[in-house]
Structures are given as C-alpha cells and as structure tokens.
Automatic annotation (TrEMBL):
InterPro entries given in the database record: AAA+_ATPase, ABC_transporter-like_ATP-bd, ABC_transporter-like_CS, P-loop_NTPase
Biased composition (Acidic residues): 254-265
Organism of this sequence: Kribbella koreensis
Recorded coiled-coil stretches: none
Region: Disordered, residue numbers: 254-315
Origin superkingdom: Bacteria
Signal peptide: none
PROSITE patterns found in the cross-reference section: ABC_TRANSPORTER_1 (PS00211), ABC_TRANSPORTER_2 (PS50893)
Domain ABC transporter: 5-241
Name of the protein in its database record: ABC transporter domain-containing protein
UniProt KW keywords: ATP-binding, Nucleotide-binding, Transport
Length: 315
C-alpha cells in the first residue's frame, strides 16, 4: 500500500531565481496524481525535491514521519527505498542489457541471491511486456521500450511511491495510451502512491485521481480531478482545456496588451469531463471515485455531456 506524502510551504530557488514558492499539498496514499504546468515552471525540480535530490530553501516534505528536507543522510537513504522513479529517457546504463539494468537496484541495495534476483526481474519485465527482450541493449530498442524497462527497474524494490517524470515524452499517442493504461494497472496491483509529471492534457483529464498545476512560481491549484476540470479559475481553465484565451502566453505570462486585446472575447465553454480511465479489470480502483461523485458532493454542476460513457462497474 502506498504512503502519504505531505508537502508544507516548500520553496526552491537557483541563485536569485525563484522557481516556485510556498507550495503545500498532500499526495494521498495509494492515489494517482498528476502535476502540470507550462514549460519551465519547475515540475521536474519539484519531483527531484520530493526524493531529496535537491534541497528546498524552505518548507517540509513529510513521509512516514520523516521530514526529508531536514533529515540526516542516513534517514534520507532509508526513505528513498520507498521510492521508484521513472526518468524522462528511462535513464538506462547503455553498456548493460535490459536484464542487468533492471537487476541493478537489487544487486546494489539487497543481498538477494542471483536466483531470487532473476525471479523478481523476470516478474517485473513480464508486468511491462518486455519478456524476450532482456538481452537487448538500450540502444537496440525503441524509446517506448526503454520507458517500460525503466519502469520495470523502478518496480523491483516494491516501492510505495512511484514518480514518473514526463513518461509520455517522445512517445506517439498510441504508446502514450498503452503506458497510461500500464500505470493505472500498476496502481491497482500495487496500490502505490503515484505522481506523474506531464504536459499531456489527455493524460491529465483521464488518468489521475488528483491534479496540480504549477504556474508563475506558485501552485495555482491542487485537488480532485473533477474539481480542476470544472474550475472557472482562468489559468486552470486555460491549461487543462488547451485554450488560447487566458493568462498563459508563449513566454508563460501574457503582457498587458495581449490581455487587454482578449478582454472582449468570450471564453469558450468548458468541455465535458470525461470518464476516468479504468484499470484493465474494468473495476474501479480502491481509491477511484465514481464518476460525478466530487461534483455531486460539492454542489458543482459539471459541463454538459460530462461522464458520458459506458456504464462503470463499481466494487
């Protein structure tokens, strides 16, 4: 089962440049979350701060009673064992075949025998559909296969928190759809807490339980998927619905002239909220809310046509 990650008042700068400040949110145990934001808003920096690769200037990250922003190196080493990370390019060792790449964390951090290592490695490679490719080198396979190999490696230590840094980067829409389904199925099987950093709007609208949006050096909003997809907040509405009208421009923020030119333009209506993607079993995950539940509980009328799909089977 996944664990809760609680972030309080987190700020990070590089020199005099503030990346983001006073970020507070909670990644609920066992749920899938997505972090969005225009390019350059520090999404990957946020992910690296969560695992202690970067130290924040202020704030706290609480995991299992440990504040990784202030803990000792020994405590950090132990907490990091809770994490599995899929980096943007898979981060494979080019001179090792896929089997040895996936086996590396087990050989580095455990005292398991080679027969135990083999059993675990082949189990994870089967989970990501790479059985038969274990002797190939990273340079001999496609980008999508490298992503899946990286995911298998992230899973071998049975992590309780899974981080995905732009897993769709460089993938075509079909491979992205397969990878999204794999993440959902893995969450159902492992119940790990998942955070996906992505630019893919379809992924953000259909996969997660919760969505966050980093913009203009702060966290614009974080909460249940339906809350953000029905939001009238200008920057949230613009980004999640891929609209030109709104505060975001080519250089992140539009200037006063651009905003003034849009003042008389009518905003397009919010598109329908789609059904959240189900695991391959066709059954709601333990942390997945039934369609429309958040809207009903909070008295929000969703956009017309929302949740139109086949009947969803509940547990």
């Amino acid at each position: 089962m996944g664990v809760e990650v609680r972030v309080e008042g987190l700020s990070k700068s590089f020199g005099s440049q503030l990346i983001w400040g006073d970020v507070s949110l909670t990644l609920p145990a066992g749920e899938i979350c997505v972090m969005l934001g225009p390019s350059g808003t520090g999404k990957s920096v946020f992910l690296k701060t969560l695992i202690g690769l970067l130290k924040p200037d202020k704030g706290h990250v609480h995991i299992e009673g440990v504040d990784i922003a202030t803990c000792s190196e020994r405590q950090l080493y132990e907490v990091r064992k809770l994490f599995g990370v899929l980096f943007q390019d898979g981060a494979m060792f080019g001179s090792m075949n896929l089997y040895d790449n996936v086996a590396f964390p087990l050989r580095e951090h455990t005292k398991k025998s080679e027969s135990e290592v083999r059993s675990i490695v082949m189990e994870k490679m089967e989970m990501v559909g790479l059985v038969g490719a274990e002797r190939k080198l990273p340079g001999e396979i496609s980008g999508g296969m490298r992503k899946r190999a990286g995911l298998a490696r992230a899973l071998v230590l049975e992590p309780e928190i899974l981080l995905f840094d732009e897993p769709d980067s460089g993938l075509d829409p079909v491979r992205t759809a397969f990878l999204n389904q794999l993440i959902i199925d893995l969450n159902e099987m492992t119940q790990a807490t998942c955070l996906i950093v992505t630019h893919d709007i379809n992924t953000a609208r259909t996969v997660p339980d919760n969505i966050g949006l980093l913009y203009h050096r702060h966290l614009a909003m974080f909460g249940p998927r339906e809350m953000l997809l029905s939001s009238e907040e200008p920057v949230v509405r613009q980004f999640l619905n891929a609209q030109r009208i709104g505060p975001i421009g080519m250089s992140e923020e539009k200037d006063a002239d651009e905003l003034a030119a849009e003042a008389d333009q009518e905003l397009p209506p919010l598109p329908p909220i789609p059904i959240q993607q189900l695991p391959s079993s066709g059954v709601l995950r333990p942390t997945q809310r039934p369609p429309g539940q958040w809207c009903a509980d909070n008295g929000v009328t969703p956009p017309p046509g929302s949740f139109a799909s086949d009947v969803v089977t509940t547990q």
